[in-house]
Amino acid sequence: MASIFGDQYFNSIGSYLKKRFGCKVIKLSLDAGFTCPNRDGSKGTGGCIFCSAEGSGDFASDIPGQIRLLSKKWPSGKYIAYFQSHTNTYAPVEILREKYEQALRYPDVIGIAIATRPDCLSPEILKLLSELNQKTFLWVELGLQTIHEDTALLINRCYPLSVFDQAVDTLSKLQIRTVIHLILGLPGENRKDMLDSVCYVCAREIFGIKLHLLNVLKDTKLAEYYPDRIHIPKKEEYINLVVDALELIPQQVTIHRVTADAPRQLLIAPEWSYEKRSILNGIQKEFLRRDSYQGINYQSR
Questions:
Q1: Which residues does residue 82 pair with via DSSP β-bridges, in sequence order?
Q2: pLDDT exceeding 90 applies to what percent of the chain?
Q3: Is the confidence at residue 1, as pLDDT, over 70?
Q4: Under a CB-based contact definition with an 8 Å cutoff, are residues 284 and 278 in contact?
Q5: Does the structure show a pLDDT above 90 at 259?
Q6: Burial class (CB in 10 A: 0-12, 13-18, 19+), 297
Q7: Phi, psi dihedral angles at 150 (to 5 degrees)
Q8: Can you tell me whether residue 217 is helix, strand or coil?
Q9: Could you check whether the bond before residue 227 is cis, i.e. omega within 30 degrees of 0?
Q10: Domain at 13-290: CATH code
């Protein structure tokens, strides 16, 4: 079966952006100095159990430095300013506006991506996001991780699924693109639980999905669960799970991640998670073996 996505078998965000803008588009991972409501005590402390001290932004750095480095490899490339670390709508609107607009003033920055929580979207912040959406290419990333409330409690997410539902509906009404984060391999979840989360979010109007491999990092609460309460899959097992998930995702949904990155000095398990190229190649080979592609098993609800 010929792939409907060119030389790959799923709708990658890289290919989507190249087609839309006519050039290579690179994300600049940024740490804007924010925190989270489940870190500062307003809803909880310690953050989600899988987060490092950097708030899932261990590779985030400054805009000029990244552009200088990346422009050597892609001289004609454009950039999306990706506010990655912690919760990037968790601040007064005036501060958010200043930081977002400062990022957009850099030459060749053609859009902005904002990682946040669905419980940190006040009416004032939604108004700001709507304004940004009118003048630049924007998507908002929501850290859901799972639809299962018992798992959400375990990982210290500190908001119920109903808050996520409302946030997605509101962003959709404002025509703001949303990207949903899901983690594959959370403690206590089996294959059906994980695929149920995929199907649930795909029943909503979303722009993209990130499928994260659960990494166990040093100095996180999650590390206390390892190895007794965490199933660490073999690489081949994970590749098969990802392909199962991608087959359930509608073809128009962009895929922003199918594994995870972590500094090797912090990584406890799985030991193969840094083999990103091998994982991506394995996913392509598994699609080819199955004679399959993204969305082949999607059923609209």
A1: 29, 113
A2: 88
A3: no
A4: no
A5: yes
A6: middle
A7: -65, -40
A8: strand
A9: yes
A10: 3.80.30
